[in-house]
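Dear support,

We are seeing what looks like truncated structure output for some complexes. This example has two components. We would appreciate it if you could run it in full and send us the complete token output so we can diff it against ours.
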Amino acid sequence: MRAKWLRAACLSVVVAACGNGEAIFNIDVYSFIKGTAQDTIPYFVLSGSLDTSSAPQLIRLLGAGSSVVDSVLIAGTDTVQSQSGSGTIAFKLYLAADSAGTRLPSALALSVPAGTVGSAADTISCPPRPASCLLFSSANPLFAKDSVWARIAVTASNTGATPFAGKIVITSLVLSVFINDKIF
Amino acid sequence: MRTSVIGVWVLALTVGWAARLSCQGLVFDARRIGMGGLTLGRSGNLVRYNAAYRAVPPGEDRRGQPKATIPIPLGVIQFLHDHPNLGSDPEFKPGSPGFNPVLAVNTILNLPLYYEIKKAPTPTNNVVFGIGKDSLRVNLGASAQLVPEDQFGISGSSRPLDPGFGIKGVRVSVMGWLHDDVELQLDDNLLGFLADSQSARHDSTYRVFVHGIVQGGFAPTVAYAGRIVGDGSSGLYVGGALHYYLGVAYFRTDGTGGDSIGNPIFANPVNATAQTITQYSRAGNSFGHGVGGDVGVAWISGPIEVGLGVNDIGATITWPDTRTDTAFYTNATGGYSKPGPNHVQTTTKLPVSYIANLGYTVGNTTLGMDVLNTGRGATVHMGGEQRISIWALRGGVARDERKRVEFGWGGGVRLGPLGLDVGFWTHTNSLSNERAVTMATSVSIY
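Here is the complete output from our reference environment:
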């Protein structure tokens, strides 16, 4: 209880210190998955489409007590390696308080429409945002806790006559959590 | 680290910021407010801190000085208007998303007696936390100026009661005394992390040094105050008091609290650590005892008045029945206390305080200044009053313990035995260089 109060006090004053500004938590998710299998998502589609995903990854947070998370932005880049064939890839991000929860449809926090895969580096974007996406507000409360589990799912669709294969390698991934409690 | 380090800072900051606000010389008298907090005649701090002023007769007092002043707390009305449901107000409710510890602590330490004319703006910058698998950094932006680099805290030394009797300048009394002092200081690691946006380092500790003491008791006192040279219109007054301090109880703690960072940084959620050495003598134990004294002198010559008073000289209290405990806290072990020596002798000191004042009154004009130090740095007040018929105009300037200059101005009207005064007072809150303005109102009885 005391720790909870401290956290509440902490965040309240941090936000209070901002005046009308915000407390922004920039979480370098990539640093948690770099060099592990979780930063690579292979795909191989003979025809039609295939769903594949990374293993759930635990992300440590500071904890925001009872503060209200206003919004969460995600920004990141990836490259496609060993590509063959042609097709499209759609991204989905699932967030939950535990590992198993990321398998549930209700944990969907972001859905990036399918796009054509090229050899150049790709940037996550959700128009009109050129280089970021806004997570679904249903995911916001998760970022008030001291940790969150994340799973990236990919839907690869073969649009050609030959097998569509390759692997997506994430090269950067940052979550920005905005907290804007009204204090004064 | 994480929340606990920031939490420690937040608590320190909360107290520190509020303390900074509280030491800006707030008084209840709108006349004093209008003169920048200046103490005149036998009002305010002069009698408290200058033993000679007990002998200065009212006739030698500053002109225009009322017999009594009753504050009109317009600020309370404003406060209740802003917080109509205080009991359920989220800003005062711990655990609520809107809970604001700064506001809560500041409201307690600075009772909202004054009407806030203009509030000081607060920075609107964002505070950015950078979190990685093995990295943590915070950028407070302009709010980093809130982080106190030096020791900070709150303290007070008061004499709540002094019943007694006097004959021909000699007074015998039993004076109550109370002293409290809380000091905090961030260590270099925590200061660098918060103020300079340094990344958290492996295997480092981020701490706040804490010192706190509260002690109280009573003191049989023999005092003398009288005029040794001069007549009714001018004279040299001296005063002195000898106190035999009897301490009823005291509590003192010194230690550190903070967070110990491991390797990697997020190896464990929180590694809070704290250790303190606590000394205390409960009420009911043998009294502490010590001897100290006050001296004061005041010289009045026509329009000029000069005074100097020093209090609690040599006031060292010896506590013969003290217990010393050591307390520890770590995440792994939790909190535990290790009893130390009991029935041992320890000593404490009361801070020496002093006041120097200068006043000049000619016709309907009064000018003055004073310097007051109660053990935590000097405050300086300069101000004056010009009376025109039933009206009075006032102005003044003050330098507070943080060496920031504040301004006061105001006026009043006197109708027979009653007067109505209004005073305006600037104050700053560390968040901005822009000053806020408050208004005090009071009724004076002449």
